[in-house]
Specification:
Distance between the termini: 31 Å
Largest sheet: 6 strands, parallel
CATH architecture of the largest domain: 3-Layer(aba) Sandwich
Number of domains: 3
Oligomer: single chain
Structural class: alpha/beta
Radius of gyration: 24 Å
Order of helices and strands: HHHHEEHEEHEHEEHEHEHEHEHEHEEHH
Strand order of the largest sheet: 3-1-5-6-7-13
Number of helices: 15
Helix content: 40-55%
Length: 386
C-alpha cells in the first residue's frame, strides 16, 4: 500500500482530521477504541509522520546539539566534523542548531567543554571520548538531565551514554592482522604503533590485532606496542628507535590516524617498500606514501560517515522519538593503491565540500519553519554533500 497522509487515515477511520492528529500525537480527547483503530490503520498503511511538520505543530524549539571533538589530529577530526555539519545542514528545516565546543586534542579539556555545553541547555551531545576516567561521570550526569550523549569515533562503555557510532575497533584490528599476514612471510615479527591504550578505540584495535596475527602468521609475533600519544615528534622518534632496534621487523600496524611520522621514520631508514606498513583511515597527506609503496593498505573507519550517522540518530530520536540502538558500527573499508582514488578524501578538497568548521562560539542558525519533509533515516547515509 502506498504511503498515505492524515487525511486518508481520517477517511479510512471515519473520524475527523483533528481526531487523527490527537491520536497519533498522544493527546487527550480520543477514546481508547478509536485511538487503537487509528493506530492500526496507520501502521498497516506504513504511515510515518513528517517530523518537521510535527515539530512545528507541537511548537517545539529548535533542536540544539552540542559537539565536542578534538581539533587535532585535524585531518581526521575535520572529516568527522564535516560529516556532522553536512547532516545538520540537510536537517536545518527541523530547526537543528550545532553548538561547537572543540578540545585541543583527544582527552584534553573534555570535562570543561561538556560542562559548558550542559550549561547551554543542549538536548544532545556528540563527543569523541578520550579521558574515560574523568569523562564517564560527566556523561552520566548529562544523561540524568535527559541530555542524550552519543559517542562517535570511540566509546565510553562504562558510562550511561545513549549509543556509540564508530567502527568495531576490535574487528578493525583483526582486519589489519589478516592483511598483515598476507603481506609478510610466516613467523615474521611485527609491531604496533598506537595513540593511547587507555582510549577505547586504540586499546581494542591493539587487542584485536595482537590476538589474531600470531594465529594467521604461523607463530609470528607482535614484538612491541608503541604508545605515541598522538604527538607527531614523539611518534617519529619512537618509531625511528624501534626500527633501529628491531632490524628484522617485517611489518608495522599504525592503529591511529597519526601515521605520517611513522612513514617518515621508515623512509629515513631506507625501508620504504621493504617493510609492510598498514595504517588507519585516509587523508590527502597519505597519498604520496601510497603511491611510492610505503603504505601497503589502510583500514578506513570513514569518519565523515560516522559524523553523518551520529547527527542523524540524534535528530531522529529528538524529533521522531525513535529509540537509539545500543551501538551503530560502521563497516571499515580497506584502502589499497588500486582503489585509492575511489575514496572521497582523495577526490574532494575542503572547498568542494562547501562546509567550513565553525568558530568556537558559533551556532549554526535555524532558518525558519519547515518547508518540506526532512529525510531522516537510520541506514547508510547519502555521501554526496548538500
Amino acid at each position: 500500500m502506498r504511503r498515505i497522509g492524515l487525511r486518508q487515515i481520517a477517511k479510512l477511520a471515519s473520524v475527523s482530521l483533528g481526531t487523527v492528529d490527537r491520536a497519533l500525537n498522544g493527546r487527550k480527547g480520543v477514546n481508547k477504541t478509536t485511538r487503537k483503530r487509528i493506530f492500526e490503520i496507520a501502521e498497516k498503511a506504513g504511515y510515518r509522520p513528517d517530523p518537521a511538520a510535527r515539530a512545528l505543530s507541537l511548537g517545539r524549539v529548535p533542536i540544539l546539539v552540542g559537539v565536542c571533538i578534538p581539533r587535532e589530529i585535524h585531518y581526521y577530526f575535520d572529516e568527522l566534523l564535516r560529516g556532522i555539519l553536512t547532516e545538520a545542514s540537510r536537517l536545518e528545516r527541523l530547526g537543528v542548531q550545532v553548538l561547537y565546543r572543540p578540545t585541543a586534542r583527544l582527552g584534553a579539556g573534555e570535562v570543561e567543554r561538556v560542562t559548558e555545553l550542559l550549561n547551554h541547555e543542549v538536548q544532545a551531545i556528540l563527543i569523541a571520548p578520550g579521558d574515560l576516567a574523568k569523562l564517564t561521570p560527566v556523561i552520566d550526569e548529562a544523561e540524568k538531565r535527559n541530555v542524550r550523549v552519543v559517542c562517535v569515533d570511540s566509546d565510553a562503555p562504562a558510562s550511561a551514554r545513549s549509543t556509540v557510532v564508530s567502527v568495531n575497533a576490535e574487528i578493525a584490528g583483526k582486519v589489519a592482522a589478516e592483511l598483515m599476514s598476507c603481506f609478510v612471510i610466516p613467523h615474521s615479527q611485527v609491531a604496533i604503533v598506537t595513540g593511547m591504550l587507555a582510549t577505547e578505540d586504540h586499546g581494542k584495535k591493539t587487542k584485536g590485532f595482537s590476538e589474531l596475527y600470531p594465529q594467521l602468521s604461523n607463530g609470528g609475533r607482535v614484538v612491541k606496542v608503541v604508545e605515541a600519544h598522538e604527538e607527531e615528534e614523539e611518534a617519529f622518534q619512537k618509531c625511528f628507535a624501534l626500527l633501529r632496534r628491531y632490524r628484522s621487523l617485517a611489518g608495522l600496524y599504525v592503529n591511529t590516524v597519526n601515521c605520517l611520522p611513522v612513514c617518515r621514520a621508515i623512509c629515513a631508514h631506507g625501508l620504504s617498500g621493504k617493510i609492510a606498513l598498514i595504517t588507519t583511515d585516509l587523508f590527502a597527506g597519505m597519498i604520496p606514501y601510497f603511491e611510492k609503496g610505503t603504505i601497503r593498505a589502510s583500514v578506513h573507519g570513514r569518519p565523515f560517515v560516522q559524523g553523518e550517522l551520529a547527527m542523524r540518530l540524534v535528530v531522529d530520536h529528538i524529533a521522531n522519538h525513535r529509540p537509539f540502538p545500543p551501538f551503530y558500527y560502521v563497516s571499515p573499508h580497506i584502502v589499497l593503491k588500486s582503489n585509492l582514488y575511489a575514496f572521497r578524501e582523495t577526490r574532494y578538497s575542503d572547498g568542494e565540500v562547501g562546509l567550513v568548521a565553525p568558530s568556537r562560539d558559533q551556532i549554526l542558525p535555524w532558518e525558519g519553519p519547515p518547508q518540506q519533509t526532512a529525510d531522516i533515516m537510520t541506514g547508510e547515509p547519502r555521501l554526496s554533500p548538500k
